[in-house]
Amino acid sequence: xxxxxxxxxxxxxxxxxxxxxxxxxxxxxxWTMDTSGDPKQGGTIEFRFNGQxxxxxxxxxxxxxxxxxxISGPEDWLNTTIEFRLKSEEDGKTAIYFTHxxxxxxxxxxxxxxxxxxxxxLSLKEYLELGVGRPFPDDIQIEDPVIRKAx
Length: 151
Known about the structure:
Shape: globular
CATH superfamily: START domain
Number of strands: 7
Helix content: 25-40%
Distance between the termini: 30 Å
Radius of gyration: 15 Å
Strand content: 25-35%
CATH class: Alpha Beta
């Protein structure tokens, strides 16, 4: 199994981060502007990118940890988990440890998603620290491996 992992530190408290991960307004502000559903533990969140995207079952939602399980969307994402674990650091910052766990294999799509997750985590940091993120469709554009293969 392959994983995508990233760590980013932000200058806000864990409660502010959790709000960005557990409210529709928060999620719309850094990942995609087309987010709906119930972001509370036991709920399902629908994330849309041009009308398509994953549905996530919210498995864990605590003050320091959020875990979603992909229940529909891209085949490579099915039954993977997306995890955010927070840790207060000595310098007053909060570290966000991100893992997109249980990919079947490393592939061009896996690498593409790793890069996109990095860009969306930077969007989360901008949203938390500056008040404005770069959610889809205003996100940083990178090469799409599916489009490249088709040409």
